[in-house]
Structures
1.
Amino acid sequence: MDDLLDRIHIDPKIMVGKPVIRGTRITVEHIMNELAVGMSSAEIVDQYPRLTEDDVHAACAYAAALLAGERVLMRASGDAEMIELERGE
């Protein structure tokens, strides 16, 4: 996974410091949004020829690594109160 994460670059001078695919201005956020609306990694690569499938996988790996350390807050169905889930629940 480290090889994939080497494809991610963060520089305050590029896209205001958002993580991007190295050598591009394409953000991890943008790739994740494209996947969220149903695009396949092949479709993303077709739309952005500078990207490879490994770049799309790197964006997913980065997002997963980032979320692994996050606390999760969610609202139970029909409940007004937010609950915090511990990792591993």
2.
Amino acid sequence: MQGQRTGEAATPFSIGAATRIGAALLILIGGAIHAYETPAQYSSVRYLGILFAANVAGALIAAAGIYRDKPWAWVLGILVAGGALAAYAITRTVGLPQDTGDIGNWGEPLGVVALVAEGAFVLLALGSSSTWRRRIVDRTAA
């Protein structure tokens, strides 16, 4: 079946390699931007730096799992990217405790790139969701 690695049995619920690679790259773009911003966030508002580092770790784990065609990785990726999208919106509207400096700053270049990549990831993941959700259900039913 298309997207299968050599030696693997084809399943009717496999997601193609191009889709998995594209999704992994999109979540990694968001993770890379958060990695770049982590030191600055940590030095200004410690808990934000920790959240940024968690985003990076989650993005790396999700990308590796998606590349390996693991259904749980799509769920993790949606949580990581969706959480980042929600946090961006909150910091630009009402702000967070100890961090109100970005209220109204919707045009920050790295933030916009991260928004596009993470938004595209979420759309791609949701578009592929019928496939990976069936695989999760099949595994839990077995």
3.
Amino acid sequence: MINNFFKKLKNYLYKNIFNYLKYSFEEFIPNSKSNLKTTNNLIRINIKNLTKNLLQISEYFSRIEISNLDSLSTEQKVEEELKNLFDKFNSDKSSHGYHKLYASIFNEISNSPTILEIGIGSNDTSTPSNMGKNGTPGASLRAFSEMYPNSDIYGADIDIETLKDFGRVKTFYLDQNNFKTFNNPVIQNKKFDIIIDDGLHMQSANLNSIFFAIQRLKTPGVLVVEDVSFNALDTWKILSNILEKPYSLQIVKCLDNYAVVLRNF
């Protein structure tokens, strides 16, 4: 019993005090012997280089070109209407140029689209990816509901305080890091014309949204991943070469970040 106690204590110290990565990242442990310090350094190198090395192989076969907002085909009237609605409800989407992006996408899908937006927005500063105290949760849901008054619209968020239904908009709890929560009874087996990921803004969570969208997009249907940073682009470039028809992926350079667009056409 004493030996077991000291073993647990040793593991705790190595993981939490000395930050030895082998206790959190078993997948990246080299399958060879070395001392703890060397193993720790190799794990760090393995984590840091994995995506870069996968991209190098991926782009040897095919390289994705990044699109610009100005190259998108839109109807000026739709673009202006979206901008006015985003601004009216205090959404920040037009500040990123997303009104132009969505004007282009809405040309491709139903005139009365079924919409799901992941990430309603939270004023709770302890919630990851929150809007701050001055943000307006549900702003874009209100904009979309005024733009498409006959559409079924859904919003999902990890902060239960933001889950407030109104009009034709229904909301439900969703934790992007827990894929089981995507399949909520509120949406049952519903298919969507457009899914918007404006949630946690990290690749593993975004990829859960991708996997969900592959199963739940109508044909035609679109998923938009907003607020993608330059440093995260390698993951999306790799994914573009993994997808098979009818799915395709586009990366769009917006005003101050990038958006990823998955199409089921």
4.
Amino acid sequence: MAYINGKEILFSAVLNGVDQSEVNALNEKNNKLTNDLIAIVQGDSAEITLPEGIETIREYAFYRHPMTGVIIPASVTKIERVAFRDCANCLAYDFANHTAVPVMAENNAFTNINENAKIKVPSALYSEWIAATNWATYASYIYKKISPDDIVYTPATDVNNTATAGVAIRHPFYFGVCEPFTRGKRYVDYEYLAGDSVKTETYELTDTGAVDSVGNTLITLSGNWDGDRYEENGVVIQGTVFSGNITFAKAGTYRLYQKFIDEAGDEYSTAAYVYEVN
């Protein structure tokens, strides 16, 4: 477990493998361990969220902790040495809410963490973060995490449309996202009435359309997909634009959208272009 004392997270109660002289020094330094301390984690192996208001994560705070992930609030401004040492199970250290890079006292705060772990930081701070004192040691673990606000959604005027099954309509649409996020795949959710129930199926939307689970054509696209990159209010946008004809094979509701995956491995979706097909 780790302990809270005011605005600090003190050292872990599990210090197996740490030199006894260092344990003694920690106990002396942290003689505040009294009944008013709060055990925030009791061997929990799931993702944990640290409480807002914590400012310092002290040495050995999460030493050998079994957590699989940790969300660190923006209030944390300092991380001391070996704070997350030997966290073998933790795959995500989420700093996404930070507006400034916290101070890392020494370059060993993340010693022996999982080789697949990701330190997720706001995209706007990424360059500063990987170059910051002592953080540079862990640059290969640091990934950009986006906010849903970073996604450029389809314009409201283009969202709801009508069409007739088997009849081509000319309707351009656009999927875009702010740099530097990975452009993901396009999808279509097909919703239809089957007897007394409504069913929804999801298929990939390729450059030429979509087919259903048995290989029948669901959507036909006849036109061009063009890459697009421009600046809007100082933000660089990248995406793809389709211009041409679209034909829906069956009646139902179609939702066309695109998913994006940021460097931190988290997935987001754009708003959908919705077509009601009769």
